[in-house]
Design brief:
By secondary structure, the protein is an all-alpha fold. The protein has one domain: lambda repressor-like DNA-binding domains (434 Repressor (Amino-terminal Domain)). Helix 1 packs across helix 3. It is elongated and about 55 Å long. The N and C termini lie far apart (about 45 Å). Keywords: DNA-binding.
Length: about 110
């Protein structure tokens, strides 16, 4: 359910319902009704505002892909930020390998 995903992501970010509503520019009462699954069909505009405020893709509100793979949403955000900054996959792999090597040197 969308409401359960929104609530979980909000809580992972340690945001109150009021903080999320303010940051997204939506009514707290409507957000509450979504989280409690009283309203089950939010608009695309609402989902875009919430996903932006939570810094997640809209898909993560619609599908269980993150939970299915047991990937912490913070990791997904880090990878997305790396992609947006222009880091290539190879550079990211090299960084990981360097850190593994560095840890083994201790």
């Amino acid at each position: 359910m969308i409401g359960e995903r929104v609530k979980k992501l909000r809580q992972e970010r340690k945001m109150s319902m009021t903080e999320l509503a303010d940051k997204a520019g939506v009514a707290k009462s409507y957000l509450s009704s979504i989280e409690r699954n009283l309203q089950k069909n939010p608009s695309v505009q609402f989902l875009e505002k919430i996903s932006t405020a939570l810094n997640v893709p809209v898909d993560s509100l619609l599908y269980d892909t993150i939970e299915d793979k047991h990937i912490d949403s913070d990791w997904v955000n880090i990878v997305e930020q790396a992609m947006e900054s222009g880091i290539s996959k190879e550079q990211f792999r090299e960084f990981i390998e360097f850190n593994k090597w560095k840890l083994n040197q201790k």
